[in-house]
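Help needed: design a sequence for this.
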């Protein structure tokens, strides 16, 4: 790793395979995986697929694997019997020593449990246990081995269940006499390596590690080397095959093939059921979407209908209010006309020398005639015309020759309108009433 760090080779490989552009992030990822490219890539791909990172595992849960199935295929390879007189002699000579050694070892371990609890019983870093085992395995047997699953046992079970694949579990007994030969001459051979890598997931750990010991308690192996084939069967992760003892490469492949062929129908059935469930889920989702679309359309239709009804109600209310307002205005106007009419001074007699005879031409072509006094204000003329029913609500009085508008109403410049005499009217006048209502 030190040489690769200097060259940037590992960073280049990891960035190409995982899509990480930051070299610092690539280096941190490699350091987390002890500079193992394969582990780093697999962990990164798991994160991209939504699978939790093996370096941030969820809290450990009880291992839920069905080991009580009585139809589990079990294949045990017994150790070869001694051959010849020399072999039997050596076996008989070593038998008391071997018996004594293992008996004392078991007694020592049993007594040690009362003094110091087994540290393997407490799993604190399951991923670290797996990575540590893989590192020690590669140091001893090299990198030519089946691809180890870079994660906890529970994560391997979940992936095998999700992908509907076989999971081969290998428990490594460090102190067993057949472990070294099995790893060198069976597990790391090219034919076994290719077979496992192309047909199944492979998870392994040492029983000296807490994670491996926990799995050992769950699978209850009898001897080492120990292999267990696990798959999804009857909707539960189930052990369908157990291989124990020193097994040869060809025999191992044959036994694994036999187990897989015997249980392939279960996987096919699970795939069909899962596909059917997915299709049912997709159909239900499509139906839900269609229902929601129809519901939204109905709701939109109801909303528009309510809006139209509300708009119509508001228009009707506005029209009604407008009619009421117009009626109130007309009443007010009629009352005002009546009041103005009552307040008008009496019309002077015809022979009064100070009187003025005025003929008014209204906008509707009617003519009205009345006499006024020269001394009266132009406001009296305006009030008289205003009191007539034929007169528009707003109007102005205009002379013909010369054309001018008479100032009948008070203004800021002229708060007191002039009298008829001051306005220059003669004894007989014709005035025009101009409608200003539209203006």
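Sure. Designed sequence:
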């Amino acid at each position: 790793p030190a040489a690769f760090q200097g060259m940037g080779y590992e960073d280049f490989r990891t960035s190409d395979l995982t899509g990480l552009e930051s070299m610092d992030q690539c280096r941190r990822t490699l350091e987390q995986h002890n500079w193992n490219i394969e582990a780093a890539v697999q962990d990164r791909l798991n994160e991209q697929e939504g699978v939790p990172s093996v370096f941030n595992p969820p809290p450990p849960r009880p291992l839920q694997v069905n080991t009580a199935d009585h139809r589990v295929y079990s294949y045990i390879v017994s150790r070869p019997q001694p051959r010849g007189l020399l072999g039997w002699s050596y076996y008989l000579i070593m038998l008391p020593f071997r018996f004594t050694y293992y008996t004392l070892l078991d007694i020592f371990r049993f007594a040690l449990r009362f003094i110091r609890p087994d540290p393997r019983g407490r799993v604190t870093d399951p991923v670290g246990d797996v990575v540590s085992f893989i590192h020690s395995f590669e140091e001893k047997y090299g990198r030519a081995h089946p691809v180890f699953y870079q994660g906890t046992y529970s994560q391997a079970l979940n992936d095998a269940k999700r992908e509907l694949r076989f999971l081969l579990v290998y428990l490594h007994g460090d102190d067993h006499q057949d472990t070294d030969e099995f790893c060198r001459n069976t597990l790391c051979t090219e034919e076994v390596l290719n077979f496992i890598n192309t047909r199944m997931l492979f998870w392994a750990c040492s029983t000296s590690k807490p994670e491996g010991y926990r799995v050992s308690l769950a699978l209850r192996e009898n001897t080492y080397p120990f292999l267990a084939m696990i798959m999804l069967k009857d909707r539960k992760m189930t052990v369908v095959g157990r291989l124990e003892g020193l097994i040869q490469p060809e025999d191992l492949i044959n036994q694994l093939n036999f187990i897989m062929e015997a249980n392939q129908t279960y996987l096919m059935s699970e795939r069909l059921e899962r596909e059917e469930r997915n299709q049912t889920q997709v159909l239900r989702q499509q139906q839900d979407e269609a229902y929601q679309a129809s519901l939204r359309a109905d709701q939109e239709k109801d909303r528009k209908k309510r809006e139209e009804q509300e708009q119509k109600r508001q228009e009707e209310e506005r029209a009604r209010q407008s009619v009421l307002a117009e009626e109130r205005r007309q009443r007010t106007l009629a009352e005002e006309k009546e009041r103005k009419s009552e307040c008008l001074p009496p019309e002077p007699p015809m022979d009064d020398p100070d009187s003025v005879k005025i003929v008014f031409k209204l906008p509707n072509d009617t003519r009205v005639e009345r006499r006024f006094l020269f001394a009266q204000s132009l406001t009296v003329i305006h009030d008289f015309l205003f009191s007539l029913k034929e007169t528009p609500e707003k109007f102005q009085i205009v002379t013909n020759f010369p054309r001018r508008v008479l100032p009948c109403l008070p203004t800021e410049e002229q708060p007191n309108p002039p009298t008829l005499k001051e306005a220059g009217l003669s004894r007989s006048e014709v005035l025009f009433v101009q409608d200003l209502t539209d203006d």
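The two ends are 96 Å apart (CA to CA).
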